[in-house]
Design brief:
The complex is a heterodimer of chains A (111) and B (120). In chain A, 0% of the residues lie in helices and 43% in strands. Chain A is an all-beta fold. The termini of chain A are far apart. With 120 residues, chain B is mainly beta. Chain B contains no helices and 11 strands. Chain B is globular and about 40 Å long. Classes of the chains: A mainly beta (111), B mainly beta (120). Chain A binds chain B through residues 32-33, 35, 37, 44-47, 50-51, 56, 88, 90, 92-94, 98-105, and chain B through 35, 37, 43-47, 50, 59, 95, 101, 103-108, 110-113.
Chain lengths: 111, 120
């Protein structure tokens, strides 16, 4: 089994850009798609990025995803930060052994 | 509009049993793989189980294998999980989740969850 490591928290000012990383412990990050979920307080998670870099309809283009084979990690970048972006963000992937693995989550504070 | 409505959560004693249900609407339920994911308040989501669109294939997290059984009734558009030999560490909010992926997993809709508390 592999794990997905995320920073516990990040903070940035409104209007700025923030990047949240998700590092895979074993196996290639490029082998299996990575998804990103946003969870606002007292709400269910909602998907913001699927298949590494695809944005569902309705998600602002301020949200983008990427993978980096060198660091074996995925990244979620949010540009033009708004206070409404303040939430917990979780990466998720899978492999042939475990259908679903979530990262530990990153709390984004927009201050 | 896609809706997933969980029910059945309750306070139950250790060693007890519970059946959760998830009523799906707004989409062709029988076409989608479905999952249960749980989350302890303040912690991240944890995958519990999944079932194929026709119910023929199931998978479980090691932590619940042998104690939980996932099933579905496509005629009733309902997903279930039967939970036996419950432990304190099963205490969590349980989400019903739709998987839209053709490769891997991709959770496009989540229910609002139902709370299971295992305590004496």
């Amino acid at each position: 089994n592999f794990m997905l490591a995320q920073p516990h928290s990040v903070s940035e000012s409104p209007g700025k850009t923030v990047t949240i990383s998700c590092t895979r412990s074993s196996g290639s990050i490029a082998s299996n798609y990575v998804q990103w979920y946003q969870q606002r307080p007292d709400s269910s998670p909602t998907i913001v990025i699927y298949e590494d870099d695809q944005r569902p309809s309705g998600v602002p283009d301020r949200f983008s995803g990427s993978i980096d084979r060198t660091s074996n990690s995925a990244s979620l970048t949010i540009s033009g930060l708004k206070t409404e972006d303040e939430a917990d963000y979780y990466c998720q992937s899978y492999d042939n052994i475990t259908p679903v693995v979530f990262g530990g989550g990153t709390k984004l504070t927009v201050l | 509009e896609v809706q997933l409505l969980e029910s059945g959560g309750a306070l139950v004693q250790p060693g007890g049993s519970l059946r959760l249900s998830c009523a799906a609407s707004g989409f062709t339920f029988s076409s989608f793989w479905m999952h249960w994911v749980r989350q302890v308040p303040g912690q991240g989501p944890v995958w519990v189980s999944r079932i194929s669109s026709d119910g023929s294939a199931t998978r479980y997290a090691d932590s619940v294998k042998g104690r939980f059984t996932i099933s579905r009734d496509n005629a009733k558009n309902t997903l279930y999980v039967e939970m036996n030999s419950l432990r304190a560490e099963d205490t969590a909010l349980y989400y019903c989740v739709r998987d839209v992926a053709t490769t891997g997993t991709n959770f496009d809709y989540w229910g609002r969850g139902t709370l299971v508390t295992v305590s004496s």
